[in-house]
Design goal:
The protein is α+β, with helices and mostly antiparallel strands. The chain has helices spanning 2-25, 33-40, and strands at residues 49-51, 56-66, 73-83, 86-93. It has one domain: Beta-lactamase Inhibitory Protein, Chain:B, domain 1 (2-Layer Sandwich), CATH 3.30.1450. 31% of the residues lie in helices and 32% in strands. The protein is globular.
C-alpha cells in the first residue's frame, strides 16, 4: 500500500510539472521579446541575461521561495531563449514556480 501511495504521489507531481510547462511556458514560445519583457520585466542580474552567440540570448527569471509541501527553501528558474526578437523555447528548473501566464 505504501508503494502505491508513493507512486501515486510521484505521478501527481510529474503531472503537475508537465501541466505547469504546457499551461505557463508553452504559450510564450513564438511571443515577441518586447511582450515577454513587458510581462516578466528584465532579468534581475546580468548573470541572468546570457548571450549564447550572435543570434540567441537567454533570459532567466529566478523565483526564490519556500516549498508549500515541505516548508524548505526552494528555487525556481524559468529560462526563455530568444532569437530574432522572438521566444524560441522555454524551460523550467525547480518545483516551486510562480510565473506570468501569457494571455
Amino acid at each position: 500500500m505504501k508503494k502505491f501511495s508513493a507512486g501515486l504521489l510521484i505521478a501527481t507531481l510529474v503531472s503537475a510539472c508537465a501541466s505547469y510547462d504546457s499551461r505557463v511556458l508553452d504559450p510564450w514560445v513564438g511571443a515577441g521579446k518586447a511582450e515577454l519583457v513587458a510581462a516578466w520585466g528584465y532579468p534581475q542580474s546580468a548573470n541572468d541575461l546570457v548571450r549564447i552567440d550572435d543570434r540567441v540570448t537567454v533570459y532567466t527569471y529566478r523565483n526564490p521561495g519556500t516549498s508549500a509541501m515541505t516548508g524548505q527553501p526552494s528555487t525556481c528558474a524559468v529560462s526563455f531563449s530568444i532569437e530574432a526578437d522572438r521566444v524560441t523555447s522555454a524551460r523550467r528548473v525547480g518545483t516551486e514556480c510562480r510565473a506570468v501566464v501569457r494571455r
